[in-house]
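[READ THE FOLD]
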Amino acid sequence: MSSTPTHGLILFAHGARDPAWAAPFERLRALTQAAMPDTDVQLAFLELMQPDLPTLAARQVAHGVQRITVVPVFLGQGGHVRCDLPQLLAQLRQAHPQVHIATVPAAGEDEAVLQALAAYCVSAARA
């Protein structure tokens, strides 16, 4: 990663009481960071784990990030993605008006993600 990335990518996950729950998300973050060395790739949580989205976004902005993309690593567009996330994004945009903050649909809504999960399920059934 360059010393002063201007783009931040925040993988936004639910969070859980068990710290081991975050392990696959940490691996996803590391894989994504490796593929995007000039982007500050971080992991934030809605609840139960830290850092939360506002804290992490503020940290990225303090380090010079000018554009943040939030990727909800949820399987579907449930209440957290449809209600909680838009409220958090509105708060972030108000707190950091100089920063472009964008989001995309939940990861599980993406066709390639669904195809990968389907392939995994088929492989598991044939094992």
Notes: Strands lie at 7-13, 39-45, 67-72, 100-103. The helical segments are 23-35, 53-62, 79-95, 111-126. The chain has a mean pLDDT of 94. The chain has one domain: 7-126.
